[in-house]
Amino acid sequence: MGNIAGVGSVDDQIIVTGPVVVAAKFVVVEKGDTLSAISLRVYGNANLYNKIFEANKPLLKDVNKIYPGQSLRIPE
Q1: Percent of all residues in the chain with a pLDDT value above 90, rounded to a whole number
Q2: 3-state secondary structure at position 74
Q3: Which residues pair with 27 in a beta bridge?
Q4: What is the per-residue pLDDT across 39-48, written as a single tens digit (0 to 9) for each?
Q5: Distances from the Cα of 60 to the Cαs of 4, 10, 30, 72, in angstroms?
Q6: 46 DSSP 8-state letter
Q7: Which residues neighbour 72 within 8 Å (Cβ) at sequence distance 6 or greater?
């Protein structure tokens, strides 16, 4: 028997039919980092910095103002 009276078992098989969601990636800003430098590291292209900026708008107000210790979401 299970933990609840009258429940003998639970069918815990899950079938996902929609698109697979990839876990979000994050980068912690280090001293001297810029969004362009982070973009170059993660995408291989410094010009994609705005993609990171847009994904972090609730946290960032200015593309030039990031600080060591901030955790930034890196979109695909």
Answers
A1: 66
A2: strand
A3: 72
A4: 999 999 999 9
A5: 48, 45, 16, 9
A6: G
A7: 26, 27, 28, 29, 38, 52, 55, 56, 59, 60, 66
